[in-house]
Each structure stands twice: as structure tokens, then as C-alpha cells.
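Changelog-linked ticket: magnesium ion example.
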Amino acid sequence: MLNRFMVVSWVSRTVHSLVMAAKYNVVFVLGGPGAGKGTQCAKIVEKFGYVHLSAGDLLREERAKSGSEYGELIDGHIKNGTIVPVEITCRLLERAMKNSEKNDFLIDGFPRNKNNYEGWNKEMGDKTDLKFVLFFTCPLEVCTQRCLDRGAAGSGRTDDNIESLKKRFDTYMNATMPIIEHYESKGLVRTIDATRDVDEIFDEVSKLFA
Ligand code: UDP
Ligand code: MG
């Protein structure tokens, strides 16, 4: 005879396994401004069918919406190279993940500081399975030149100029590197030398997804 306890425990185990199966697979993609995160993500999408979510692109999209209550706040942070509060970024990321039919996500340019890291873990930690952190290393001079070239070629970005870039690098060194080091200590970081040409880098990246 089934008693009530057995039924309740079966239901709870079934619900638990359904929830577990529905977890989002996530790869965080980090590296300095201009390291090539976006470029490599596009290639990973093409070859391995991931969904690319750039936190910066989502914020720029939100900023561009007429009537967005966060437009000005986001604009200020982007020009200053500082980090938008996690509640905003996390909500945009979660919405994009919920709206996607796929389950494998490259989250590019996030988490960038302690506030991002803690906010994400609190809201999304249980709903996601973090596969690894893809980390592109690139010397500051190379990254700066790439962003300036991108600006000169008409990226239209308000932060591809020397003043914003200095601030973005400060934030990267002071706020983002400690997060990468933290993931490193957990054995989650896969480091890629991003100074080479795009295809050479992608050959190495591909091995991590194959
Ligand atoms: N940004 C943020 N939170 C994020 C991602 C981006 O506040 O999670 C802001 C931040 O001001 C950053 C800017 O958006 O400097 C541009 O980020 P993006 O990732 O697009 O720049 P990239 O590093 O790719 O050049
Ligand atoms: Mg980018």
C-alpha cells in the first residue's frame, strides 16, 4: 500500500529531476575590452549551436528603448566603463534565456565584478549549470588598439575612445580579474591566448566545445 509519505516523496523527486533537467547550460566568456569575446562567440554559435548573449549588447539594447527607466543609468555606466547594477543585467539575461528555445548559452562579458557574481549566484545559481569560464588573455596595448580601430571603423560605440577605454581597463583589472581568479581557484577557467589571428584562436577554442 502506498502511504501519503511515499506519494509526497515520489512527487518531490519527480519535480526535482524535471527541474534539474531544465537547467540552463552556461559558459561565461571573459577577457578585457577588445580581447575578441564577441568575435569568437559568433564562431562558436555557428559551429556548436550555442546562443550568444552579450551582457553589453543587452544593456545597449535596453538603453536604446524609448521610455526605458534605466536608459540614462546604463548610458552613464557604459561611458564611464563602470558596471551596471546586477539586478538590471541579470534580469535582461534571464529574460533572454527564458525566451530562447535552446538551452546552451554563451554569456559574454559577465560577471564583471563581485556585485555581478553574487547577484547572479543568488538569482540564477540554482537554475544554471556552469560548464566553464572561457577566458581570453590579451595585452592591454593590443586590446586598446583593437577598440580604437573598431571605433574608427564606425562601431558607433560611445566607449571605443581613449578616455572610456582607460576606465574600462581600470574596471577590468580591479573588478573583473579578481572574479576570474576566483573561478580559476575552482578549476573552472580555460585560458586562451587572444593575441593571434581569429582562426588560430578559434581552433583552440573549438577543442573546448568538441
Ligand atoms: N556592462 C555592464 N555589465 C555587464 C556587461 C557590460 O555594466 O555585465 C557595461 C560596462 O559599462 C562595460 C560596457 O557595458 O564597459 C561594455 O561592455 P561590453 O561587454 O560590450 O564591452 P567589451 O568588453 O566587449 O568591449
Ligand atoms: Mg563585446
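Closing comment: Example verified and attached. The longest strand covers residues 128-137. The domain at 24-54+88-207 is CATH 3.40.50.300 (Rossmann fold).
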